[in-house]
Amino acid sequence: MSQHGVGPRAVTRSVAFLTAGVLAVPALTGCGSEDPAGKPLAAPDIQPAGRDRIADGGTLRWAVDSVPDTLNTFQSDADTTTLRVAQAVLPSMFRMNADGRPERNPAYLESAEVVETEPKQVVLYKLNQQAVWSDGREIGAADFAAQWRALSGKNTAYWTARNAGYDRIQKIERGDNALEVRVTFSRPYADWRSLFSPLYPKDVMGTPDSFNDGARRKLKVTAGPFTVKKVDREDDEITLTRNPRWWSKPAKLSEIVLRTVPRDKRVAELAAGTLDVAEIDPAAARRITVTARPQSSSSPLTGPGADRSAADDLHSWAVANGTDEDAADEETVARKKLRKASARYAGQQQALRGFEVRKSLEPAFTQLALNGAEGPLADERVRRAVARALDRKELAKAVLKPLGLPAVPVGSHLALSGQAHYADNSGALGDQDTKEAQALLADAGWVRGGPLKEQKKKRKEEEKAAGAEGEKTSGEDNKAHGGQDPADHLAHDGRHYQHPARGGAPGAYAPKGTAAPANRETAPLAKNGKPLTLRFVLPSGPGSQTLRTVADRISRMLERVGIGTDISKVSDESYFKDHIASGQYDLALYSWPATAFPATDARPVYAKPVPAADGSLNVEQNYTRVGTDQVDQLFDEAVSTLDEGKSRSLIRKADSRIWAAAGSIPLFQRPELIAARKNLVNTGAFGFGTPVYEDMGFLKKGAKPASGPSAKGSPAR
Questions:
Q1: For the segment 371-391, what is each residue's pLDDT rounded down to a tens digit?
Q2: What is the pTM of this model?
Q3: How crowded is the C-beta side of 611, counted as CA atoms within 13 Å?
Q4: Of 595, 593, 423, 416, whose CA–CA distance to 40 is shortest?
Q5: What is the 8-class DSSP label of residue 580?
Q6: pLDDT > 70? residue 714
Q7: How far apart are CA 63 and CA 54, in angstroms?
Q8: Cα angle for residues 488, 489, 491 (degrees, 5° grid)
Q9: If we measure between CA atoms, which residue out of 587, 600, 597 comes closest to residue 665?
Q10: Cα–Cα distance measured from residue 420 to residue 418, given in angstroms and rounded to the nearest whole number
C-alpha cells in the first residue's frame, strides 16, 4: 500500500455529553425506512468482459510488494500477497460482492444456513459435489474439523495469529452424507460466514508441525482455479498455474506471476513491458493518464527539464559555450544527461500508451489516531477538541477530488458506505467547530498566555540559536502564508513542500528572534507551565507523501484552535513497530480495512486495554489505547445474536460511542489506483469485491470489453 495500513483480519452533528458516566448520543440513523448503509461510493473498475471474448492462455505479470514469508493466512507474518495467493488457489465458502457483503461461493457451496438455534446454533454446509483437492481427494468434514482444531486456541503448539470464531465451535461432524458438514457452536456466533475462508486441507491443519511449517514456503495441495507452481525467493516471484483438477469454469490465463517490484520502479517496469498490472501512486497515474490526451503546443511539458524556463535554457547554453572551460565542461555533461533522461522519459511515455489507470476506492480508510494513554490526549476533552478542529470534508476533498473519486468523509469506524453495518454516526461527536474546540480546551484547563516554565530563562539562548540551528518541523512552522497552499498539490506531484520557517499573518514579517507582543489571543495554549504541543509521527518513505501532506493540513487546522504539533518523520520499517504499536506518539495517520464482520474483526481494534499478568497493558490492536466497557459489551452482544438486524443496530451503537470517545477520527476512504494493459479484462481496481481469478485474461484479437457505461472511477449507482 502507498499509505500505511494494518489489517485486523487475515493479513493480520451534535455534541455527545458524558454525564455521570452515561453517554447521551443522537438517535441512530437506522430508525427510518431508508437503509443507512447506502451504496458504495465508487464502483469496481476492472474492464469487465464475457468469457467468450477472452483469449485462452497467456501469462499475467502482476506487481506485488513482497514475496511473503508464509502462505498460511492464519500466521502473524502473512501479508497481502499471502491473501492474494490464497484467493487464487484455496477454497473460500463465502466471498465479498461489489457492495462488500458476503455471498455464497457456488464453486464450493450448494448452500450454507443456520438449521438450529436451540439448544445450540448449528450451521449446515452442503458442498459442491465436484469440489476436490488437487490430489483428487474430496473436500469434506475432515478438512473443516482440522482447521477448527488448529485455530480453536486450545492447543498452543499451533502458532496461530487469531482464533476468533473458531473458539466458539463445539464440534464438527459429517452430515447425512459426505457432502454435508454440520458445525455446532458452543455459543451463538453471528459472524459464522467469516469462517473457513480460506479453507486449508487437513494435510496443512492436521498437526502443529504441518501448520507451523508446512504452508510457509509451499502449498502442495490446493483447490482453486490455480495452484502454486513455484515460490522463487531469489527472483522474488511466485508463479501460479492452472489447476488441472479445477471443476468449475477453467481459468482463462495459463499462469499468473506475482513479482516483487518496488513502487518507485513500477512505471519503468510497465514501460519496459515486464509488467501487465500494478498498483501505483497518484504521480504514476498522472503519467499514464496524460499519454491518452491529445498533445498540442499548449500542452504542459512533463518529465526531466519540464520546469526549465527559456531563460534557464539560454543560460545553460551560454555557460556550455563560455570561456570558463571547467564550467563549460560541467554544463555540457549536465546537458547531455538531461537530453538522455528526456529521451528515456519520452520513450517510456510512448510505451505507457498501452496502459490505462483503473480507479476505485479500497475497502479501507485512513484515520487520525490519538494516543489516549498519556499526555494531553489522555483527557477526553482534548481529544474531542482535536476532532472538532478538523474539517474532514476538506481533507477528503484534498486527497480524492484530484483523482476524480468521490470526496466523501468516512462516517463510521466499523464499516464503509454500502456495507451492511454502515451508518454515518459522526454526529455523536460533531462536525468541525472552532469555537466548540476552543471551549473544550478551556474546560480542560488549557488557556492562552499561560506561563511557560523556563521560558524567560531560555529566551535569549533560543533567540541566539534561531539563526544557526536547523528547522524543527512543527505545526506553527508548517503554516503557509500567501501563495498556493501546499496541500493543493496533493495527488498532483510527488514533492514535499517545505513551508516558511515562521508563522503569522500574510504580509511583511519581523526578523527572526523578534519577541511576540503580549497578546493573549495569539499566545500558545498552556497548562501547568507546559505548552499544548502534540507529537505527530509520520512515515518518511516515498509512498507516504499523501499522508505527510494531509498531516501538514491537519497541523494548520489544529493551530487555529491553539494546538501545536511537532512532526517527526521516521522510517517506514520502524513506523508501526517502534512508534504506533509501542505508543510512542500523540497523533498518527494510518489505515484500517473495513471488514464485512466488524463484530469479530473490529473488536480487538477498539477493545478497552486491560492489564496483563506481567503488569504491562494488553492493547491487542487498539493502538490509540482508548476504549470503554460499554463498547466492549456492545461488540459482545452483536457477535452473539443471530438476529442480523439487531446485530447491525448494536454495531452502529458501538460506533457512536467510539466516535464520542474520540480515540480515532476516520477521514477518507483510500484511493485504489491500478495501471493495467488496455486489453487486460476482469482485473483492476476491485473495490469491495473479491477477484474472480478464473475470469481474468486478455481480450481476443479484435474483441471489445463488455458494452455499457464504464465504471472508471464513477460513483456507484
A1: 999 999 999 999 999 999 999
A2: 0.82
A3: 3
A4: 416
A5: I
A6: no
A7: 22
A8: 115
A9: 587
A10: 6
